[in-house]
Amino acid sequence: MTYPQKNYSIPANMLHLMGMAWRYYKIVFFLILLQMVAGGLMPLFGLYLPVLAVDLLLAERGMREVLLILGGFAGAFALLQIIDAVAKQGKYPFQNMMRTVWQKLLFFKALDCDYRLMETAEGQTWYEKARKNFTYRDNGATQQMFNAMAGLVSGGISFVFLVGILAMLHPLVLVGLAVLAAAGYFTDKIPLEYEESQRDYTAALSKKHRYLTQAMGDVSAGKDMRIYNLSSLFTRLGKELMAAKFIVYTKIANRYFTASALQGVLGLARDGAAYAYCIWQVTQGYISVPEFILFMGAIGSFSGWLNELITHVLTLRRENTHVNDVRGFLESTNQDDPSQSLNIDILSGKAVEIEFCDVQFSYSRETSPVLDGVNFKIHAGEKAALVGTNGAGKTTIVKLLCGFYKADAGEILLNGHNINRFRRADLYTLFSAVFQDMCMLPLSVAENVGFTPPDRHDEKRLIQALKTAGIYEEIAAHPEGLQAYMNRNIKASGLVLSGGQQQKLMLARALYKDAPILILDEPTAALDPIAESEVYEGFHAVTQGKTALFISHRLASTRFCDRILMLSGGKITENGDHETLITQNGEYAHMYEVQSHYYKENPNENEVHYV
Prior knowledge:
By secondary structure, the chain is α/β, with parallel strands linked by helices. The protein has helices spanning 10-24, 26-58, 63-112, 115-118, 121-131, 141-169, 171-197, 199-216, 222-227, 231-283, 289-332, 394-401, 424-428, 445-450, 459-469, 472-476, 499-513, 529-542, 578-584, 587-595; strands spanning 354-361, 371-378, 383-387, 409-414, 417-418, 431-434, 517-521, 547-552, 563-568, 571-576. The protein folds into 3 domains: 10-331, ABC transporter transmembrane region fold (Up-down Bundle); 350-430 and 515-611, P-loop containing nucleotide triphosphate hydrolases (Rossmann fold, 3-Layer(aba) Sandwich), CATH 3.40.50; 437-514, 3-Layer(aba) Sandwich (Rossmann fold), CATH 3.40.50.300.
């Protein structure tokens, strides 16, 4: 998979950033405009102030008049400096908040974008390239581009006046300065292009380093860290990553250092020649002393302003690529919904029939198909168990059914309608699901189950869901009950649940949503057989009228189901109820016999009895 690159121009991204400022923090928009004007005029006052002072003295004006004129000029100069400082400092906190706006947009896009993208290493690298632009505060892409944008416009205002002044000295002086400045631009361009060529590599390193840092801070891994002395492994991996980052960033820094040295040599040649020409002009009487001061100041300012303009242009060029990374991730990570989508209401208020028709799927072109012509139908209101060994593709079927992935071939139908004809957000409303990996948030029990604000909880439904899942007694025993916080690291009085209890809480979450299709993907993996039996008995009672799919490689769920689907070799190889499949004496019967000692006292009996 190759993710699409965005190639917005610098002006397009500048307008986009200003539009974002107008939308979220209008004061940033106005302060940037103020900085552009004040920053553009301020250097000109500084350039003309000494020229005006010498000119007044040579004209033998009265002291009062000289002080009055210079005082007014200096006052205007000081006012511009104050305005510039207020604009720069005033916009900083709001500009920094703009950075958090982008971070928030990226974070929620990562949660909302196509699921398949975020499961790939390439997608994670793409996200990291976008995310790292806002990690380093003032060096973030948007702030750098805002600053460069303001500097470029204000510098451009000053630059226009300086060009006019130097053209009066001699056009060739202006041409010579411009040529040498252009050479300096290409000198600075070389390290920038090298840095850009390493962006994918540095992003991959940053992604690995961030993962390593998160893993080292994971408290749940503390036992393994101690027993297996993993600290030495983490230390070695950290050193290797830091060494790799040091090498690449040193190469980048060396190129910038070389470019800076060459810029110094070019600047010396450029300014030295121009200064020599001015000195010759004044000694020959071609220009006056005030003009000499003006031209000398203009040459120095021209060089400085030209260097700043080059720096701003290069910054805009560099950060424009980074902003394109961000905009690309925000704008290109969702597959378009169908242009003429079906209204999800055609499935509401009724049980839903699920049908897979010759479905084929593989995770990449380089790997063999996980599903190779899967066909089955689960009737509306039917309870089905999808069983098979680890890696058979059971969870893949869940991902396809929920719309996280799209089938490579074949169709998935809900009441006869292809799921690809529904909007993705609408499709999600049809499912209550419990997945293998649990998502426990640092919120209250009620918020973790209901995902609604405290004033909108249906407490009666919450309690019933918790009771059905077999976790209500543990919650009720806590002094704060449903409002108990689910994280003791953040709140000392928080509720700590075992792995099995957390799975029960996830089951309660699925029940509370009360969607027409219930999916349980290994929901009882952390439970003992007795607790597992209690959970399935509870689900059997509350799923009447719903279509339910139980996925497991443990067969405790099968006796509660109307139909059992045996998945093997990428196909459904057996289809029927428990008694039928046991009679067929196929793969399901063999798997059940192997596991039977978990469920019955007498392995020769087919009826399940938990011990």
